[in-house]
Design a protein that fits this description.
With about 350 residues, the chain is an all-alpha fold. It has one domain: ABC transporter involved in vitamin B12 uptake, BtuC. The protein contains 14 helices and no strands. The termini are far apart.
Length: about 350
Amino acid sequence: MTVKTSPKIPAPKRKKMSDGKIIAALAAALVLLFLFSLCIGRYEIPLRQLPEIIMAWILGAPAGDAAETVVFYVRIPRILAAVMIGAALAVSGAAYQGLFRNPMVSPDILGASAGAGFGAALAILLSLGAWGIQTGAFLFSLAAVAITYLTAMAVSRKNDAVLTLVLVGIVISSLFSSLVSITKYAADTDDKLPAITFWLMGSLSSINAGDLKVMIIPLAAGAALIFLLRWKLNIISFGDEEARNMGVDVKKIRPLIIAAASLLTATAVSAGGMIGWVGLIIPHVARFLVGPNYKILLPVSFLCGSLFLLAIDNIARTAFTVEIPLGILTSLIGAPFFVYLMFRGRKSWV
């Protein structure tokens, strides 16, 4: 006599959170972290006091209160700068990784960060002031990318334009890094050399409302162009030949994406210094959450980049009595993640 057993019912698969819910969760987390960042610091502000401070500022009450001064003239500009710079580096990193079809690409692949470092170091050496430092970093960052692109296009063959861009970018980055070393060697060891070294490690301690006004236009322009071309990025990430077969003019789209991503990188680096790893690791986090579709990948990268750098900046200004440069903290997190990517060794990442 055989005993019939009931068939096993497979356990229901856990539904993946929808893309909309992920974006909503990240946006809510960013708002909460924003409020938390307003409260913490050497001058602590209770959360319950924030509405009073904000209402007093809206109604035009006298700005004699120390808490109001700290919130509106110190912390809000710095927090907004962290959000903007983190988003810019993450979006440009995601765009570069799709454009070059390489998960190890970061926003400084074409020499933007090295060029900005030389521009800032030269401005500090010449005592040009804060405005001169930002302008020099911005202009030399764009100049380095332009030199890389024009050189690569002059020497590249039909089928290896991407590889040539990467190789020339490495050369140009090395060149500008050497120029930075020369500038540091010529700098005064008591005054200008420490200033150059500190700037190169990245910091938001000197950000003010005026810097935000200067940043907003190039950041908005670069991000808008990349978001408009996100459909093209989806196609280009499969390769130039496939993109051409699907009607995408790669020769026209590639320089537009490079220009937009370089504008984001140059603006971010000129304002906050050389903050590494954000543009490398954040697109991978976003890709893990929502996949490789740039329709949703770019907004998630935007939010993740903002959250990451704002959290890092909070640690930098509150963990110790002396502020830690952002580049040190991002490297401590980014380097182990990079090793993890190397060991993971996926051949297909899209």
